Amino acid sequence: MSDRVASTFEAQRDRLRAVAHRVLGSHADAEDVVQEAWLRLSRQDPASIENLDGWLTTVVGRISLDVLRSRRSRPEAPYEEIVVTVDSPEEDAELADSVGLALLVVLETLGPSERLAFVLHDLFAVPFDEIGRILGKSTAAAKMLASRARRKVRTPARPTGSSQREVVQAFLTAARDGDFEGLLKVLDPEVRLTVDTPDGVVVVLGATNVAAGARFGAAAGGRTVLVGGLPGVVAWREDGTPLSVVAFTVTDGRITTIAAVADPVKLATMALPEPPGTVGGAR
């Protein structure tokens, strides 16, 4: 391999890693994808590559797509990278390179092709004709996949402040007390609730439906945390094992998304704070 090709790859490494990470939600998987792209490049005749940047994006996209399609055998992988920290006004985390829980749970509801099309186009401005080639579909089909994904996804807001904490606390209190009107006051009319359960992701849309089915009594007694930079709460069972992790997105004083993980397998991969009252780090 020529020095020019190697140097071009190194110059693109961070971008390729970022693409794979946003598609897959896992730093470890992203590193593996970029390494595989390097190996494929080393076996390729550089003279046969007309546009190296485009070739690398295509290869990383196709490898990432293969990883997404194989995840049914290990669906818990991305959750180990969700950062959960005890909440305090001093700990508004800077998590620019993290994939928040709310976005990750919603992305998990997308098919691999939808997810790839959305991430490549909306987050990295990859043209639809190039996305179509990666997916083996027409440009029009790639546009349709991204549009369908876009309707399902709302990217979580980044800021986390005291006003957002107050809105979340008001929701938890209303849920605990069975205050239907109180719930409607803090829920956006088009709020989206996603719950990752052992049987798959359950989605509930709309304030009335979310409020009618709100069962957050346990969470109301849990521990306030930041989940991927968003205000959230962790709840535990009596034996100290985690029951659920919930993250809230607050926009203009109302909750627009609620993302919850209640799958014990996925919860077991997350680094969570100890439950209140734990002595000596043992649960």
Total number of strands: 7
Q: Approximately how much helix is present in the residues?
A: 40-55%
Strand neighbour order, sheet with most strands: 1-4-5-6-7-2-3
Please state the CA-atom Rg, rounded to the nearest Å: 21 Å
Which SSEs are present, and which pair or pack?
Blueprint: H1 3-24, H2 27-42, H3 52-70, E1 84-86, H4 101-108, H5 112-124, H6 128-135, H7 139-152, H8 162-177, H9 180-186, E2 187-197, E3 200-205, H10 207-212, H11 217-220, E4 223-227, E5 230-236, E6 242-251, E7 254-261, H12 264-267
Parallel strand pairs: 2-7
Antiparallel strand pairs: 1-4, 2-3, 4-5, 5-6, 6-7
In short:
This protein has 283 residues and is of the alpha+beta class. Helix content is 48%, strand content 18%. The chain contains 12 helices and 7 strands.
